Task: inverse folding
């Protein structure tokens, strides 16, 4: 009985709560926001339209309570006092966490406020941000900002400072002074990036030997030992306020952007004026142009094949060095290992060493490696073997014969493959079984690829190991084709016989009909 | 109870033995007296039902041989068809013959149906012959649709996805029908199982029944005579004179069929009339654009495309399916609608109905082939150019047909076919949308017919005079 009463009492209480909740208005998010903040959020421009777009307003409304509180604090302290500034802060596409980071950084808050800054020191976004302004969008995309390191990390002071600390002026001399001598830059970045203990807190897998390597590079030697401030330092390649990981498509160090990044200096004749190669020749500035047309450049820049080498894959990056004659072939071999091994066992290796020729580069070039054709093997003027042998090894009929054999065999395989492809289509259209031919075609493809590679041994018997299976495949394919054509002929013959038989029966019926009808 | 004593027949031999027991003599008597009308009219139309039957018999025989090796299944359908065409002796021929014969059967059937329409052979007492023929036509289309999926290749798979999709547009029952057809919400191997069962068991049984009915009524009633000439005709014995002629034609059909099958084993190369096996179906692949059904479904496919997404409160495809259903019902009911022909009077409106059906279907089919659109590879054809070029083709075709009708057959009633051609011109040449062009043509047709009825019914009476 008592239990029953308790249930009723509980029911009444719950019912009352539920009912009352209908009448109590929901706690409006707006109510918690101070009036000054609302004023900024609802401000209108000169044309009477709201300064904040609906998207920006929605972004603000979706911010967690804590972030909204931080914004209110900043307004309270008058770091934020301008509706334009609020629009800028809400428009750079940050996550809630990043927004909280930004709202606790007085440097950014003060420097985005047009009430306090002049054109030279105001951070904005968009096209007007270039030049004297600093682009806030770049700044918040910077890997350092995203890891929690903001202005003070490099410039000094702390994010809580309410004024510019003296330390900032001491650490950062005038811009002209900084530009005149760039030797301080590697050391400056190295304060953190060369300290494994410090770096572990942010990115444990990142190497910390960049400055040490840089010191050994041509860039490093010129800057640090010879005091040449035109030589590239950290910021030349990585930038400064928009540094991104190399895996980011927008990074200057992303593989597809590396050629342009290097080219900024190396393709600029003015910048490169006065620099000489080891032989005393002026350093060329056409590498980027050549690279863009090369197989590597086309693969990387046009086909977006990130496996293709950019500048740094051959020259290194922090330890950038021009490869020397002896090391060129080692660099090529990082990808083209099999061809390198074949070349090592060939007669050419010694001859190339004697003449001081770069192994791969002698025939294929370096920045301008072009797409290969079988005609490069042709034993006549214009063919690669012929042209070189005509100068350096004229009295060698065996070489001539080998080149002719290579060229003849590879051309035969290539033409056979082409014919086979056509035959497969023709036979398939006739309804004949081409399964066997399709298999042959793929093994011929393999043989052709392998033969083209094996010419790097410059040895007939080695080449034949790949070429002979191809030639046999061609024979087998030809016999399959002949069989299929026989089958096709026999089908037509069979049809002829069938038509003849049916025709005879029909004729007999016609005669019979005539007999009946004439009777 | 003792069985009835066997009555002694006058004749001995097998026939006598059979006659004693089953009374087959009556049948032979009937056959030996049966005749086919002969006269100044062309007899060619009398043979088309026979050729359709011939191709159907070929279908049964070649299908039976394919069935010896074909196994339906996710891992076997495509593989066994490949095996049949490449390894089984004469397997390639069987598939090729089966495919060619299917298309020839449908061509023969359609010509048979239209000739019946134009000659008004459906008039009493042959209403049931027409309706059973109409059912056989629908069954033949069902045969084509179900058989197309069985090789389980890419093209068939996606064509079936698109084809069954259009069933969804059927009002009220759409979704239910779709799931019944597909055996689920998507086209899967279960769809193939039911298509297989339909194709090799259910449809043949139903078709046998209807062919039986169709043949029995034809044999009972004899061949239809041309209108208003019944009394002036001679007669040719059905057995053996007509039957021998039929057989000779069948042999010629066989020669044609074998030649096509040997020289073009994968079909004609015209979209909708080819059956290259290609790749195995992969339900996970996205359907590529330009998937089209077989040629005899193209007009429905194109009509579905011509309708806007929403049409008078209906979804576009729903409206299109309703229209197709409405037209087919009219077609099936022609023997009752054509009241003049019932009384052996001229009915020029129904001759014109047949021609307008040809114009309507031919234009949609030409358009579905994207003739003159300049599309190739990834370049999509230009619909405006397709509509225009196809309209020019239709103008040429209509010139020939209308000229023949006017000068050779003396037709003077062109309201329906005229409206159909007007729609073609308004859409293809003037550039109106297909639907708007159709409305204008229908409006003018209604106004014209109303006007001529008010003027004294001259249009309705017509004058179909042979020169």
Result:
């Amino acid at each position: 009985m008592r239990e029953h009463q308790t249930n009723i009492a509980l029911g009444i209480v719950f019912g009352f709560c539920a009912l009352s909740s209908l009448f109590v208005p929901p706690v409006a998010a707006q109510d918690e926001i101070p009036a000054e903040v609302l004023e900024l959020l609802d401000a209108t421009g000169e044309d009477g339209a709201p300064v904040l777009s609906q998207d920006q307003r929605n972004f603000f409304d979706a911010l967690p309570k804590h972030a909204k509180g931080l914004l209110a604090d900043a307004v309270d302290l008058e770091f934020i006092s301008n509706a334009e500034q609020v629009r800028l802060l809400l428009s750079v596409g940050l996550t809630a966490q990043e927004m909280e980071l930004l709202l606790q950084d007085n440097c950014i808050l003060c420097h985005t406020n047009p009430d306090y800054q002049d054109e030279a020191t105001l951070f904005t976004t968009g096209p007007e941000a270039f030049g004297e302004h600093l682009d806030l969008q770049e700044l918040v995309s910077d890997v350092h900002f995203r890891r929690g390191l903001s202005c003070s990390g490099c410039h000094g002071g702390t994010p809580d400072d309410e004024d510019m600390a003296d330390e900032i002026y001491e650490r950062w001399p005038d811009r002209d002074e900084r530009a005149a001598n760039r030797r301080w830059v590697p050391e400056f970045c190295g304060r953190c990036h060369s300290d494994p203990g410090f770096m572990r807190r942010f990115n444990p897998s990142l190497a910390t030997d960049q400055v040490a390597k840089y010191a050994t590079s041509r860039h490093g030697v010129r800057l640090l030992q010879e005091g040449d401030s035109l030589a590239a330092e950290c910021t030349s390649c990585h930038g400064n306020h928009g540094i991104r990981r190399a895996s980011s498509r927008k990074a200057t160090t992303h593989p597809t952007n590396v050629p342009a990044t290097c080219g900024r200096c190396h393709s600029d004749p003015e910048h490169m004026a006065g620099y000489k190669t080891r032989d005393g020749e002026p350093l060329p500035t056409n590498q980027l142009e050549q690279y863009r047309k090369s197989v590597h450049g086309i693969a990387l820049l046009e086909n977006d094949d990130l496996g293709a080498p950019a500048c740094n894959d051959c020259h290194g990056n922090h330890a950038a060095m021009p490869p020397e004659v002896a090391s060129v072939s080692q660099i090529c071999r990082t990808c083209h290992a099999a061809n390198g091994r074949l070349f090592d066992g060939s007669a050419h290796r010694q001859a190339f060493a004697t003449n001081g020729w770069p192994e791969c580069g002698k025939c294929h070039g370096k920045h301008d490696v072009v797409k290969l054709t079988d005609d490069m093997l042709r034993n006549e003027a214009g063919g690669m073997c012929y042209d070189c042998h005509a100068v350096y090894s004229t009295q060698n009929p065996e070489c001539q014969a080998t080149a002719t054999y290579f060229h003849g065999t590879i051309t035969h395989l290539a033409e056979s493959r082409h014919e086979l492809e056509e035959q497969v289509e023709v036979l398939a259209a006739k309804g004949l079984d081409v399964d066997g031919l399709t298999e042959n075609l793929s093994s011929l493809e393999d043989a052709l690829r392998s033969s083209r590679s094996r010419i790097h041994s410059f040895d007939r018997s080695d080449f034949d190991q790949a070429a002979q299976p191809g030639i046999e495949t061609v024979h087998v394919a030809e016999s399959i084709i002949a069989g299929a054509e026989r089958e096709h002929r026999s089908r037509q013959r069979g049809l002829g016989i069938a038509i003849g038989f049916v025709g005879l029966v029909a004729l007999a019926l016609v005669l019979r009909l005539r007999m009946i009808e004439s009777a | 109870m003792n069985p009835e004593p066997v009555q002694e027949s006058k004749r001995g031999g097998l026939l006598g033995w059979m006659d004693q027991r089953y009374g087959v003599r009556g049948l032979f008597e009937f056959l030996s007296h049966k005749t086919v009308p002969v006269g100044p009219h062309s007899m060619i139309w009398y043979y088309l039902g026979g050729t359709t039957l011939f191709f159907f018999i070929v279908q049964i025989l070649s299908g039976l041989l394919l069935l010896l090796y074909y196994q339906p299944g996710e891992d076997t359908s495509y593989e066994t068809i490949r095996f049949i065409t490449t390894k089984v002796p004469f397997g390639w021929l069987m598939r090729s013959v089966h495919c060619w014969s299917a298309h020839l059967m449908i061509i023969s059937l359609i010509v048979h149906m239209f000739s019946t329409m134009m000659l008004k052979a459906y008039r009493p007492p042959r209403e049931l012959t027409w309706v059973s023929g109409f059912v056989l036509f629908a069954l033949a289309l069902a045969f084509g649709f179900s058989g197309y999926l069985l090789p389980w290749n890419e093209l068939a798979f996606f064509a079936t996805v698109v084809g069954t999709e259009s069933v969804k547009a059927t009002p009220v029952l759409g979704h239910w029908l779709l799931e019944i057809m597909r055996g689920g919400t998507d086209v899967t191997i279960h769809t193939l199982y039911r298509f297989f069962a339909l194709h090799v068991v259910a449809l043949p049984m139903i078709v046998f029944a209807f062919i039986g009915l169709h043949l029995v009524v034809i044999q009972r009633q004899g061949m239809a005579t041309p209108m208003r000439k019944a009394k002036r005709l001679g007669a040719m014995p059905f057995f053996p004179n007509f039957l021998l002629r039929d057989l000779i034609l069948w042999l010629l059909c066989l020669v044609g069929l074998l030649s096509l099958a040997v020289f073009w084993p994968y079909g004609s190369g015209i979209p909708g009339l080819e059956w290259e096996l290609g790749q195995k179906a992969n339900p996970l692949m996205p359907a590529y654009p330009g998937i089209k059904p077989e040629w005899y479904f193209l007009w429905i496919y194109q009509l579905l495309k011509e309708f806007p997404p929403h049409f008078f409160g209906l979804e576009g495809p729903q409206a299109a399916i309703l229209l197709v259903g409405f037209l087919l019902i009219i077609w099936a009911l022609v023997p009752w609608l054509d009241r003049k022909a019932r009384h052996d009077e001229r009915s020029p409106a129904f001759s014109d109905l047949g021609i307008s059906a040809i114009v309507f279907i031919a234009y949609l089919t030409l358009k579905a082939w994207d003739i003159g659109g300049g599309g190739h590879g990834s370049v999509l054809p230009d619909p405006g150019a397709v509509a225009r070029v196809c309209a020019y083709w239709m103008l040429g075709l209509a010139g020939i047909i209308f000229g023949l009708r006017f000068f050779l057959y003396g037709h003077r009633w062109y309201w329906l076919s005229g409206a159909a051609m007007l729609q073609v011109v308004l859409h293809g040449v003037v550039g109106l949308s297909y639907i708007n062009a159709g409305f204008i043509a229908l409006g003018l047709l209604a106004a014209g017919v109303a006007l001529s009825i008010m003027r004294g019914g001259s249009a309705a009476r017509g004058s179909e005079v042979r020169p």
